[in-house]
């Protein structure tokens, strides 16, 4: 009997598959597990009948699941979804698990915009409109898959969620010029210009934007402070209105060059200069009871300007040694940020005119930057094993920060306020390394990871009366473990554990006191690192012609969590009880709950997503030397999103968000409800695009809070310019080769 298995090529697929060997009379189905190659089947798996003398044709067919889980990743195999091939990356992202793209092109994951967008396993370095235009112009048929990582392993540095877009297609030539503008009725106006060129070896992406915006905010509330004996020290109520105007710009230039099929170089750089101008007015009714009793109500005016500029740049070299995935990459990148803040504040008292004052504040950051060197190596070794390791060295250039406060005295002479003027210098240095090991057992994938390193922090605060240096050294370990399994009927199970460690910032460890007009801040040299244990498990079922249903549960346990506590203390500087803020280790805290996620997806161009969560938060802390404090609260949230694409050119969007009362450190925040809706349209094969979006339709985005500190009772309400209509127009000229090919094939 003649064996056939050695005639079959290697085939790695993501999901349960069947390979078929056919002759003129029969078909044989062979089960091949996920990520298993045919040459790994037992030697007696495939035989031809002795009567068969010749094999005229070998035909192998394999069906890969559209959705799958693999270790820490949820996969959407875009290349296997024919219904999105004529669309863009924006259409493909709408179908990725938990990902949403609104009418303006903003990407969210599970309702949150705190997500990092990666492209081909690298940070995209694109932000704002540059990122939005990228996903609107990248053809979906150039995407192999989209990876959603909600609880990243040590390979990603233990950061926030990641969405990785993996592209595969090569083009002979793509070139187009785009320009447009976004505007809303706040008002805000943002004209921009983009140029993209690509061929088989080289691509560039240049982008420039100007932005003007005007926003406002209103606040009102009350504050009651008590002495340590429980007597009322003071009461106040206040209202305030603030206006903010921003003139900003953003410039980006990036691209890549392929030396050959295995070696490539990526480069990027950007800058974002801007200026903020603010004006605010407040009315305060203030009664003192214990110290110099009386009515100290006042009216305050503040104006100022903050010019600032940031930059980032980098190079990334990648060398792939073979088609099995062995790869070496080297990366160097730098970023920096500097600013100058200058403002004036005047206060006029109702009954104590001798206390009136005018203050001019100036703060300058002379330099603020960092350089990072990174290297990584990936090696698939043996069968079903994959190992990756990397190292990072980071250095922050010395930061020089100076703050001065000049007061106009009643005698008409301006004097330097030595209590509120100070300087700061700081330097940070650190290195870390990570390693991950992944093993696949058929449809079961396990991944272990460890990231560890040391951070060296040094800073010095100095004023007219004191100089306080601080030196700190921390060792930071970040282990992780991810496990996933899926059945042939597409039941997906996942489990993950990550341990995070957050070290105090150098500025949090100093004993230096920063005085403000009616309060002060102080560091805490006794701070300890915070340890967090994150557990997450879930089940997902992907249903053909419906979508998916999933349930997940999580638990987060924190030890020595670092929080900023605002309390009341008697200050001899002020001669009365005042508020002060200090970072503390609150002891232990936790956050645990479960969520339901369901997506109705009868076609690739219609999605109805519902996610709902219930969770319990709480903490146990030593509030004062002889007082302990406990609080906990069950909360919930719900998010409903509808997206539909009609006639290949019109998209409709709708979103509802609701959250119940929530708990933070000694503070409750009220329930919140918002509703958004939008529409976008493409014409002439996306040469012209328009959108209209309505944010917070019912103007319900009003924040309410109340403090539970027994010595500091505060309540408040704040609202912003959250309801507005935004409009956008984009014109594109040039050639999108991949997209035109897909359209031609579709016709």
Q: What does this entry look like structurally?
A:
This protein has 747 residues and is mainly beta. It is built from three helices and 45 strands. The protein has a 31-stranded antiparallel β-sheet that branches. The protein has a six-stranded mixed β-sheet with strand order 3-4-9-10-7-8. β41 and β42 (688-695) form a beta hairpin.
Descriptive key words:
mainly beta; 31-stranded antiparallel beta sheet; disordered N terminus; 45 strands; six-stranded mixed beta sheet; 65% strand; 747 residues
Outline the fold blueprint.
Elements: E1 17-22, E2 27-32, E3 67-70, E4 73-76, H1 89-94, E5 99-101, E6 107-109, E7 116-119, E8 122-123, H2 128-137, E9 143-149, E10 162-167, E11 173-184, E12 188-199, E13 202-226, E14 232-258, E15 263-271, E16 274-288, E17 294-295, E18 298-320, E19 327-349, E20 357-367, E21 369-379, E22 385-396, E23 399-408, E24 414-416, E25 422-441, E26 444-462, E27 467-486, E28 491-502, E29 513-515, E30 519-522, E31 530-543, E32 547-559, E33 562-571, E34 576-585, E35 588-603, E36 606-624, E37 627-646, E38 650-659, E39 662-664, E40 667-669, E41 672-683, E42 688-695, E43 702-707, E44 712-720, E45 724-735, H3 737-746
What is the overall number of helices? 3
- Largest pleated sheet: 31 strands, antiparallel
Q: What gross morphology would you assign?
A: globular
What proportion strand?
Answer: over 45%
- Beginning-to-end CA distance, first to last residue: 48 Å
Helix content: under 10%
Unreliable stretches covering 5 or more consecutive residues: 1-56, 738-747
Q: Mean pLDDT, rounded to whole units?
A: 81
SS elements, strand count: 45
What value does the Rg take, in angstroms? 30 Å
Secondary-structure-based class equals mainly beta
């Amino acid at each position: 009997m003649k064996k056939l298995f050695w005639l079959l090529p290697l085939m790695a697929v993501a999901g349960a598959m069947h390979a078929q060997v056919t002759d003129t009379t029969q078909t044989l189905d062979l089960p091949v597990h996920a990520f298993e190659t045919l040459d790994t089947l037992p030697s007696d798996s495939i035989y031809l009948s002795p009567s068969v003398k010749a094999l005229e044709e070998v035909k192998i067919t394999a069906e890969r699941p559209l959705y799958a889980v693999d270790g820490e990743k949820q996969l959407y195999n875009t290349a296997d979804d024919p219904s999105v091939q004529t669309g863009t990356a924006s259409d493909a992202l709408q179908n990725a698990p938990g990902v949403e793209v609104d009418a303006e092109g903003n990407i969210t994951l599970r309702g949150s915009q705190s997500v990092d967008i990666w492209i081909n396993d690298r940070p995209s370095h694109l932000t704002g409109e540059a990122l939005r235009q990228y996903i609107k112009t990248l053809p979906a048929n150039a995407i192999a898959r989209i990876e959603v990582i909600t609880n990243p392993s040590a390979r990603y540095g233990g950061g926030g969620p990641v969405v990785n877009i993996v592209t595969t297609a090569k083009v002979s030539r793509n070139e187009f010029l785009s320009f447009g503008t976004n505007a809303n009725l706040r008002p805000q106006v943002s004209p921009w210009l983009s140029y993209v060129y690509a061929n088989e070896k080289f691509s560039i992406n240049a982008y420039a934007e100007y932005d003007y915006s005007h926003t406002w905010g209103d606040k009102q509330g009350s504050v009651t402070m008590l002495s340590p004996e429980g007597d009322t020290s003071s009461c106040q109520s206040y209202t305030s209105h603030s206006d903010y105007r921003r003139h900003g710009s953003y410039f980006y230039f990036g691209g890549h060059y392929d030396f050959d099929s295995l070696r490539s170089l990526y480069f990027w750089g950007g800058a974002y200069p801007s200026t903020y101008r603010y004006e605010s007015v407040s009315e305060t009714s203030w009664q003192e009871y214990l110290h110099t009793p009386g009515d100290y109500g006042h009216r305050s005016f503040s104006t100022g300007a903050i010019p600032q500029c940031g930059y980032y740049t980098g190079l990334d070299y990648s060398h792939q040694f073979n088609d099995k995935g062995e790869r070496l990459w080297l990366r160097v990148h730098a970023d920096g940020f500097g600013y100058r803040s200058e403002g004036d504040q005047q206060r006029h008292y109702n009954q104590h005119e001798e206390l009136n004052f005018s203050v001019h504040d100036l703060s300058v950051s002379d330099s603020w930057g960092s350089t990072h060197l990174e290297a990584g190596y990936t090696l698939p070794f043996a069968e079903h094993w994959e190992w990756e390791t990397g190292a990072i060295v980071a250095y922050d250039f010395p930061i020089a920060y100076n703050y001065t406060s000049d007061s106009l005295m009643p005698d008409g002479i301006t004097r330097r306020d030595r209590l509120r003027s100070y300087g700061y210098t700081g330097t940070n240095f650190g290195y870390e390394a990570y390693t991950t090991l992944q093993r696949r057992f058929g449809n079961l994938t396990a991944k272990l990871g460890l990231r560890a390193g040391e951070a060296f922090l040094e800073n010095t605060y100095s004023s007219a009366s004191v100089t306080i240096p601080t030196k700190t050294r921390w060792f930071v370990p970040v282990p992780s473990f991810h496990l996933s399994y899926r059945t042939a009927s597409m039941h997906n199970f996942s489990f993950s554990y990550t341990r995070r460690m957050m070290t105090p910032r150098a500025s949090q460890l100093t004993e230096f006191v920063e005085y403000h007009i009616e309060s002060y801040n102080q560091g805490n040299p006794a701070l300890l690192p915070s340890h967090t244990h994150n557990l997450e498990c879930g089940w997902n079922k992907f249903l053909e012609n419906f979508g998916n249903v999933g349930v997940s549960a999580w638990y987060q346990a924190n030890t020595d969590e670092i929080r900023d506590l605002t309390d009341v203390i008697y200050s001899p500087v002020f001669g009365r009880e005042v508020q002060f803020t200090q970072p503390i280790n609150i002891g232990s805290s936790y956050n645990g709950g479960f969520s339901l996620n369901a997506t109705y997806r009868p076609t690739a161009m219609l999605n109805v997503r519902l996610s709902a969560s219930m969770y319990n938060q709480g903490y146990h802390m030593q509030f004062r030397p002889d007082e302990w404090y406990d609080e906990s609260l069950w909360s919930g949230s719900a998010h409903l999103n509808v997206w539909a694409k009609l006639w290949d050119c019109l998209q409709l969007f709708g979103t509802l968000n609701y959250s119940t009362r929530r708990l933070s450190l000694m503070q409750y925040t009220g329930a919140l409800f918002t509703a958004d809706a939008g529409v976008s349209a493409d014409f002439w094969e996306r040469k012209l695009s328009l959108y209209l979006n309505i944010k917070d339709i019912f103007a319900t985005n009003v924040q309410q809070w109340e403090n539970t500190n027994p010595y500091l009772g505060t309540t408040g309400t704040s609202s912003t310019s959250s309801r507005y209509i935004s409009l956008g127009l984009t014109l594109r000229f040039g050639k999108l080769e991949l997209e035109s090919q897909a359209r031609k094939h579709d016709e």
